Amino acid sequence: MPTSLFLHHFIIRYTVEGTMPLPEFAADKLKSAFGNAMAFIHGEESDIAQFFFHKKYADPESKTGSWRDAPAPYILRNVQPENKLVSGDIFSFELILFGSANNYFNALMPVLAETAKRFSFRQRCEINLFSIHELDSRGVSHEIFGTRGNYFLLPTHPIRLADFPAIKVTNKVLTLNFKTSFQPTNDFDDLRGFNFFEIVSQLAKRVHLLQHVYANATTIKDTDVEQRYQAAKKIKPLKIDLNNKSFARKRGHIVDGYTGEIVYKGDNLQTYLQLLLFGQWLHVGKNASLGCGQYTLHYK
Question: How far is CA 198 from CA 68, 185, 201, 202, in A?
């Protein structure tokens, strides 16, 4: 599937002084701190705050031309360590920015520094911005900000769908390993939410919507996307080994999802391989901006 969408993948690292327990859903608290830092540094009505938290798009499914909230132009994921911060630790998380969100990268620098202060608010812990690394599609790290060298470089290694060439799956089997809680976008009473068609079509819809909002591409209706991937219904789960995983977010809201492994078998898997490889940075399902729906892809 051709797409104009691109993204940048960063690892943000902080130094830690003091001790601080981390909540079970640390990415949720981190996102809240990120939003509060954005409002504090730039103001709630600023262009950057409106872009990151209040951007809307015209709904192509609507006959009245209504507007909907856009998906977040970023993902916060892989908060490390997972349980507790101790003096001397390096506290880190990954930040993924989509398309035009990278135009605001300079403006994000003071926000990232302020995020740490707000994340550790009321805790006997001080967190200071230490370094920022950009990762390319091969996983090679490029340092673009470091306090020791006191330098700053613009990100120059975008990740695109075209970075993943067509590869033939020789044994007609591939595996999706969900590292974080996957929550299908549609309610379901059984495991049909994990059918190959459901996952591929959800991912394709996410790609089309992100590129429409953040890469100025023409919008495509969900029904048209589903029509393109009808052949994926022939690919069936060979093995499902999933664990239910619930998280208690702020205000008592419970998030249900699944982690674990699904093995699929079928013909023409290579048709979907490029999309699934790119999707490892996009995530699939609900609460993607909090890091949910992150998976790794394995194939031969």
Answer: 22, 9, 5, 6
- In angstroms, the CA 1 to CA 187 distance is 27
pLDDT at residue 189, rounded to an integer: 44
Q: Please, which residues bridge with residue 13 across strands? A: 92, 131
Strand (E) or helix (H) holding 210: helix 196-214
User: Which parts of the chain sit beneath pLDDT 70?
Assistant: 1-2, 24, 62-65, 122, 148-151, 185-193, 245-255
> 21 vs 24, 84, 129, 276, CA distance in Å?
9, 4, 19, 35
User: How many CB atoms are closer than 10 A to CB 154?
Assistant: 10
Say how far apart CA 175 and CA 228 lie, in whole Å: 22
**DSSP 8-state secondary structure symbol assigned to residue 185:** S
CA distances from 84 to 7, 16, 18 (A): 30, 11, 10
Whether 6-160 and 164-299 share one fold: the answer is yes
φ, ψ (nearest 5 deg) of residue 131: -160, 160
Q: What residue segments make up the domains of the chain, in order of their start?
A: 6-160, 164-299
Q: Quick one: residue 207, left, alpha or beta (phi over 0 = left, psi -120 to 50 = alpha)? A: alpha
Alpha-carbon span 238 to 173, nearest angstrom: 9
Which CATH code fits 164-299?
A: 3.30.70.1900
Residue 259, SS3? strand
Write out pLDDT tens, residues 4-14. 899 999 999 99
- If one counts every other C-beta atom within 10 angstroms of the C-beta of residue 131, the result is 18
- CATH topology (fold) of 6-160: Alpha-Beta Plaits (3.30.70)
Give 67-101 pLDDT, tens digit per residue: 888 999 999 999 888 788 888 889 999 999 999 99
In this prediction the pTM is 0.90
